[in-house]
Write a structure and sequence with these properties.
By secondary structure, the protein is α/β, with parallel strands linked by helices. The chain is built from twelve helices and eleven strands. α6 packs parallel to α7 and α8 crosses α11. The longest helix is centred in the C-terminal third of the chain and has 21 residues.
Length: 325
């Protein structure tokens, strides 16, 4: 049986894919498979992956005929995966040698549904360690118990799918698939569902993933309409959390986080194209009106003055202005 399936989507990353693939080779084992999903790249990435399919032990090369986005590409990999455990990597990131063996050893030692890990963020030549926002390491816990508190960063705010490893039973329960078509913030509904519905998890102080931040082709750097999919993503988080048995406890966290993300985008609105900036304002105003209003009131009261003022001003935006925008 395949011990570990690694799902790696690629899209127009010819500059970075060779580093990613070299790091996979430095992690290869006879019982590991690397599912390389080309999401209809238009540069030299397909040629690079074709060579990797011949040269990288355990490589499985899949290609989309149309670009579907990161969430859809990951789902393609999940559907093809055969491993007892599953993990992810993005096509412009890389790994330390032998990292995956340590990752498998961690989850087998702990015996839980999933394990979350720290990572190294790489921006140009700068390196910084980013840790799972949970203090207890190597201890198996109920993931529902670490969603709160609402006013602090918790495990659901550390939404990187590649920062961890997941037992196949989660995939069999439908907990590892992403919302098809989401082009940004695809990890947010995913991490919330995982923490609400999985039974056990642990955080470990294992470093081995190097996350390349500030890539010019990344959606986080492009101010086009695809960025607005964060609204669809957080609408899903709020909707699904509202249906949870502990909705009264969990909704304040979901709504406050949604508000913080809206405020963040409004605070850097100049990076968006003018038409997208207008749409951001109108869609965000409509999103505030969809939220549970009492929970929203409490969330705004708990935020700092600058963010709360910005969001209250947007909340008062008349419906006619939203439609016109």
């Amino acid at each position: 049986m395949v011990k570990l399936s690694v799902i790696v989507p690629f899209y127009n990353v010819q500059q970075y894919a060779p580093d990613t693939l070299r790091s996979l080779r430095a992690n290869a084992r006879d019982d590991f498979e690397f599912i390389l999903v080309d999401d209809c790249s238009r540069d030299e990435t397909p040629d690079i992956l074709e060579r990797a399919a011949r040269e990288l032990p355990g490589a499985v090369h899949l290609r989309h005929e149309t670009n579907g986005g990161l969430a859809t590409a990951r789902n393609t990999g999940l559907d093809a995966a055969r491993g007892e455990y599953l993990t992810f990597l993005d096509g412009d990131d890389w790994l330390a040698p032998g990292y995956f063996t340590q990752l498998v050893d961690s989850i087998e030692r702990l015996g839980c549904d999933f394990v979350r890990t720290d990572h190294v963020q790489c921006t140009a030549r700068a390196r910084s360690v980013h840790r799972v926002p949970h203090g207890r390491r190597g201890v198996v816990l109920n993931p529902r118990d670490v969603i709160l508190p609402a006013d602090r960063s918790t495990s659901v705010d550390y939404a990187y799918a590649w920062a961890g490893i997941y037992h196949r039973r989660l995939a069999d329960r439908g907990l590892l698939h992403f919302t098809d078509g989401l082009r940004t913030a695809e990890d947010r509904p995913w991490i919330w569902r995982l923490h609400r519905e999985a039974e056990s998890f642990a955080a470990v102080g294992l470093l081995g993933v190097f996350y390349r931040r500030g890539v010019a082709s990344s959606l986080t750097q492009i101010g086009d309409v695809r960025q607005l999919d964060f609204i669809k993503a957080f609408d899903q988080v709020v909707r699904e959390t509202a249906a949870d048995r502990d909705a009264d406890e969990l909704l304040p966290k979901a709504v406050r986080t949604y508000c913080a993300i809206i405020s963040h985008h409004l605070g850097s609105i100049e990076r968006f194209e003018p038409s997208v900036a207008r749409k951001l304002k109108s869609m965000s105003a409509a999103a505030l009106k969809r939220m549970p209003q009492g929970v929203l009131d409490d969330a705004l009261d708990s935020m700092d003055v600058q963010r709360a003022t910005r969001l209250r001003r947007l909340r008062r935006r008349p419906a006619s202005a939203e439609v016109a925008a």
